């Protein structure tokens, strides 16, 4: 892919910066960001990449809500628009944080759709991020795009620890006493927030009227590379805390960052493909297998396990949710493999061997 005009909305994180480096070598890349390019990214405090010497990468400020010509003009004549915008889900699911997580995805996607609708030469392809967490917690079978199970109910999506169940029960009792059992605020507790985010995000994306733009939603698994989730997992292993998390049976779906780059480039050229695609390597692993591999590549033979109740205490202390670790995300990339995409790193060992044996190790 050469000499193309590419716009990346929300491009200052781990995936966005990887995309900018990948495509910026031979294309014109514009990053829409609420940050400036000399600020820190959310990729473990690494600085955002600078413009290349030939100005192939540039940053344009936007608020991800309002249509302003400084950023809407960048979409004119674009070959590819990639939207990664969204408040991090690595937080405690308070009402305030849930609103930020949901609104940041809905409003940014809506703004991009409206901006495309006003273009004389709209982007040829619009790839919007989604998440593999849209599928139900599953230990028995993988989820593909055709037969995967999606359940809005909280009980179907989370293997709660004892403390998690107590927290949920107390919150439910409080709302019943304050609002009543039939109040929407009380009933809302029964629904899984992450599923709501994914479904609302995809609904907003496909609802926008962009007849001249091919649209693809990527239900992405965890991307692995020199950054992202491997940084904290490697730290745990080095500190002797790299044992199984929970019971270790939950599935971990993942994709190597280079394969993710390749998938996006491949999809840009595959004009017959649109709609929803799972983006994960074909071989998910259990948490037990994941942590074994993490210890192996960090030269540690043993790691203390972290049972679910300890994870709940730790999550409360650092301000996150155990769902990010304990939910079994088991997805397979059926549409990708059926249409002929070949993964460079189909197994976790292949992926980690490449990542950890680079000159700049994690």
Put simply, the count of helices is 13
N-to-C span: 29 Å
Total beta strands: 12
| Percent strand | 5-15%
Identify low-pLDDT runs: 39-45
| Class from secondary-structure proportions | alpha/beta
- Helicity range: 25-40%
Oligomer: single chain
- Which sheet architecture does the biggest sheet show? 7 strands, parallel
Q: Which strand order do you get reading across the main beta sheet? A: 3-2-1-4-5-6-11
Provide the descriptors you would attach to this structure in a database record.
single chain; 362 residues; alpha/beta; 13 helices; 38% helix; globular
Task: Give a brief rundown of this model.
By secondary structure, this protein is of the alpha/beta class. Helix content is 38%, strand content 14%.
Map the helices and strands:
Layout lengths: L4 E5 L4 H11 L3 E6 L23 E5 L7 H4 L7 E4 L11 H23 L7 E7 L30 H18 L4 H4 L5 H15 L6 E7 L1 E4 L1 E2 L1 H9 L12 E2 L1 E3 H13 L5 E5 L5 E2 H11 L10 H11 L4 H4 L7 H5 L9 H9 L6
Parallel strand pairs: 1-2, 1-4, 2-3, 4-5, 5-6, 6-11, 7-10
Antiparallel strand pairs: 7-8, 9-12
Helix pairs in contact: 3-6, 9-13
Structural summary, described in words:
By secondary structure, the protein is α/β, with parallel strands linked by helices. It has 13 helices and 12 strands. The protein has helices at 14-24, 69-72, 95-117, 162-179, 184-187, 193-207, 230-238, 257-269, 287-297, 308-318, 323-326, 334-338, 348-356; strands at 5-9, 28-33, 57-61, 80-83, 125-131, 214-220, 222-225, 227-228, 251-252, 254-256, 275-279, 285-286. A 7-stranded parallel sheet has the order 3-2-1-4-5-6-11, sandwiched between helices. Helix 1 links the parallel strand 1 (5-9) and strand 2 (28-33). The longest helix is centred in the first third of the chain and has 23 residues, at 95-117. It is globular. The two termini are 29 Å apart. The model is unreliable at 39-45 (pLDDT under 50).
